[in-house]
Structure formats: structure tokens, C-alpha cells
Amino acid sequence: MRAKSLPDSSAATSGAEFLFHELSGYLKPEDISQLQNAYFFSQSAHSGQYRKSGEPYISHPLAVASILGKLHLDTQTLTAALLHDVMEDTHVSKSEISNRFGTAVADLVDGVSKLDKIEFQTHADAQAENFRKMLLAMARDVRVILIKLADRLHNMRTLEAMRPEKRRRTARETMEIYAPIANRLGLNNIYQELQELSFLNLFPTRYRVLTKATKGVRGNRREVLKKILDAIRKCLYEAGLNTKVSGREKQLYSIYKKMVEKHLTFSEIFDIYGFRVVVKDIPSCYIALGALHSLYNPIPGKV
Ligand code: MN
Fold first, then answer.
1. Could you tell me which of 71, 64, 79 has the C-alpha nearest to residue 32?
2. Whole-model pTM?
């Protein structure tokens, strides 16, 4: 193979530096150097290839590896993430990957490439079929699915470079297949982001309208959220409970789904904030519920 070359874009370089810096927080130096090798290898294999957005192709595997690095995945997974498109899009063979980076990494890359083929062949087929094959692959090595989810997430984040028809198709597939898998694996942040991005690309107008509506209602939302959180914490503390309380704004898609499923207008949706109270046992749970009901009036039929 060719000598290590400099990345062909400063954006990709700083992306790589950032990634390796982040990873050094939990990986050993020899792991980082394997990842650097994989990065250079992938970059030279993809050299001359560009994303639809005009960026050098390497920016994509790099972003996929970063997503997985945030989940603190192991070196083999991250190495495979950096190489996940080389078999598909370049002349690199499985045995070459295996010789350089080991069989485990080669198997992961091969697994991801096979999933891509399934996707490609079965567009017109039933989605359920696709789903089942995904699950089958999942049983063999869940890391293949994790790479695929991160790959899909980055493609969804950069979907605006695509034609409208392709955007819709990718978004529908994400909503029906990938988001549910992320949910099942407990990857809540990825699940929610996939869902929001799918919603945005499937129904851009509804997304915009709903964004505006929630902004209007929330006003200065951070302040409101904090005020409610403080009140809840104080009330539970006074009830003698040791709890963990967190609050968040509900996802646009979950608001939208509720409107559709329950035939509600936006003004009939009350819960644009969600709060979670974690207590140590069941009795405390009822004490907490009682305390909260004395703080805020329950709405009949809503609890
Ligand atoms: Mn990819």
C-alpha cells in the first residue's frame, strides 16, 4: 500500500485530530495507533471520492467512528467503522483488511457491507423482510448493527445534499427499520435523533409548523423548564424523598405522533415537557406521586 499521505482537506484533518484526542480518554496508546493506521488506510483507499455535499469521502467514516467513540466502543468496532465502506466502494478486499487489521475487524466490515447489499436489493420488497435480515445479522455480532446505525445516523444528518425523492425514501426506511432497532438496543439518543431527522425529511412542512408552534408555547423554555424542575425537587425533598429528577422537552415527532393517533390539535397537547423522577422503591414512588399532586393539579384521565 501507499505511504501515509496527508488528508486532502483540513476539515477532515481536524476531524481526525479531534476524534483521536477524544478516544485517548478511554483507549490505550496502541489502540489509538491502530485507529490512526486505519484512518490513513481508509483515506488513501477513498482518495478522489467525494460525498454529495462535496466533502472528501473520508469525512463520512470519520464521523461514523466519532459517533461510536462517544458510546465508548472497542477498538475493533472503531477500526471497522473507519473502514466500513472500503470493500463496497474501493478495491480493497476482505483478506487485505484481515491481514492488516485482523480477522475480527475484517468480519465486521464484511458484515456491514452485506447489510448494505440487503438494503440495495430489497427496496421494493416488504420492509419486514429487510427487518428480519437485520435482526439475523444482529444475532451474529451486535457490533455490525451498531456500525450500521452510526452510518445511518451520519447519512441522515447529511441528507440535505440528496434529491427530495431519495431523502424521502431514506427517511422512511430509517423510521421503519433503523430507529426501531436503535430503540430496541436502548440507544435512546440515536433513536430520537433518527426519528426527528426522519420526521423532518418525510414531512418538512409539518416539521416546520410544529417547530414554530412549540417555540411559541414554550416562550423562554429553558427558564420554564428550570423553574418546574426546581419546584419538583424542592417538593420531593420536603416530602423526605431522596430522588433523581430530570426534565426534557418532548421530541417534535412524539408530539406529532400523539396528535395523529389521538386526533388532537396542537393546542390540545399539554405535555410538551417530560419529567422523570427516579426513586428507590415502590412506596417512595407513591409518596412522590402524592407530593407532586399537591404541587400540580392532576388532569383527570391524563395520569
Ligand atoms: Mn457508510
1. 79
2. 0.78
